[in-house]
Amino acid sequence: MAELKTFQGGIHPPYHKELASGKAIKPAPIPSEVIIHLQQHIGAPCEPLVSEGDRVEVGQKIGEAQAFVSAPVHASVSGTVKAITEATNFTGAKVRSVVITPDKDQPEFAKKPGKDLEALTAEEIREIAKEAGLVGMGGAAFPTHVKITPPSDKPIDTVIVNACECEPFLTCDHRLLLERTDDIIAGARLLKTAVGAGKVVFGVEANKMDAVDALRSRASSYPDVEVEVLEVKYPEGAEKMLIFALTGRKVPPGKLPSEVGCLVQNVGTAVALYEAAAWGKPLYERVVTVTGPGVREPANLLARIGTPISVLLEACGGLVGNPVKLIMGGPMTGWAQPDASAPVVKGTSGVVVLTSDVVDLGEESECVRCGKCVEVCPMFLSPNFIVQSVRRGQWDKAEMWGALDCFECGCCSYQCPAYIPHVQYVRKAKAEIAALKKK
User: Fold this and answer.
1) Which of 18, 21, 98, 240 is 20 to 30 Å from the Cα of 44, by its Cα?
2) 235 and 120: one domain?
3) Reduced to 3 states, what is the DSSP secondary structure of residue 65?
4) Are 220 and 214 in contact (CB under 8 A)?
5) Cβ contact 308:32 at 8 Å
6) CA-based diameter of the chain, in Å?
7) Which residues form the domain of 407?
8) Residue 212 in 3-state DSSP?
9) pLDDT at 392 over 80
10) pLDDT digit string (tens) for 321-374?
């Protein structure tokens, strides 16, 4: 077999995909109430379009985007608005939210006859993405209509569909690749039309060869669609790493993929764009992997946005063993949760429960200057010097060492023998630098 494409740096953690990769997607239960945040995307929060006591229908727009970099939100259930309130999101921040009490009987979403997908113009596709509230579903949650509106002086020639799913434990994208293959390809080709690119390239890690086979079989009639197999390595699916692995192009520090003629979108976003264009369906539900050694029956659940993660855990038989860490997202880039009350948002790819036998809870100590963090950093930064600058409150030096270029993949923390939580230091640096620039 030819050498697989990849990037320099990165790590090979245990992947634990086997827990859920063979589990077909099934619907999650409808909770007794859904909590829908009015900001679950990068950019400006939405303004509520409903009031306490209002009736809403599934798919109804309940939050309007007031700014260009924003995305509307929709009711994920039919029911009654219980409250417009501040609710805690997965990061611990308070976010204005719409709380809905669902009706006992939930109607199916009424599919609207869409237009001929091949006949849609770039402008129509952008408008569809905007009205459907689409965002990047790999975790970043950047509004899709903004991403597929590249600067006129930065032509896009290649759309890359991120089908790597390099995070340990997560398998929602893998299941979509197997169960919604045609829809993903259709969504990817809509992305291609939206940005005027010449081709679509799927990047799939080599531990998902069944997905590679499915894509190649279904894409064989499309000369503009390619499927590439990549080395199994974390973070192979990070935007800049993926672009380099597939095209050899390097996105300059502080620049976007459009700088090198590429657009990268997640598998889930491609499906959501297809559903919005073909059925008129807004983004009000998504597939979430609920997994880990602390989950009795790991599963891939199609969950309504706003479903508390406690409901998903219960649907999977509850907890087992000695659970010590609950994570929203994957174990590398996700957010540890103090409890299971946070609701699913558009960017929630997984809920992972780790037990004491797989979590190394070592205490942070002084840097031993081994250089392992520098060795594995896919962005070629010096995480050790960023940490040092943060500890000293030297924000200018933290920026000089590349704190703003870090995308928080966690490779440095994973490799560190001193248990230094580099990503936490980087997040603090970013917040302080942003506050200083605001002043």
Assistant:
1) 240
2) yes
3) strand
4) no
5) no
6) 62
7) 372-438
8) helix
9) yes
10) 999 999 999 999 999 999 999 999 999 999 999 999 999 878 999 999 999 999
Q: Tokens 């558009």 sit at which residue? A: 346
What gap in Å lies between CA 286 and CA 345, rounded to an integer?
9
Q: What are 401's two structure tokens?
A: 């060492």
Other CB atoms within a 10 A radius of the CB of residue 307 amount to: 26
Count the alpha carbons within 13 Å of 41 in the hemisphere toward its beta carbon. 29
Do 266 and 327 have their domain in common? no
The three-class DSSP label of residue 393 is: coil
pLDDT band per the 50, 70, 90 thresholds, residue 111: confident
d(CA 313, CA 329): 14
Q: Count CB neighbours of 36 within 10 A.
A: 30
Distance CA 247, CA 224 (A): 15
User: CB count, 10 Å around CB of 296?
Assistant: 13
* Residues 274 and 293 reside in one and the same domain: no
Q: Is the pLDDT of residue 114 over 80?
A: no
Please name the residue that has the structure tokens 């599963």.
299
Look at strands 94-102 and 34-37 and give their pairing: antiparallel
Are 219 and 268 members of one domain?
A: yes
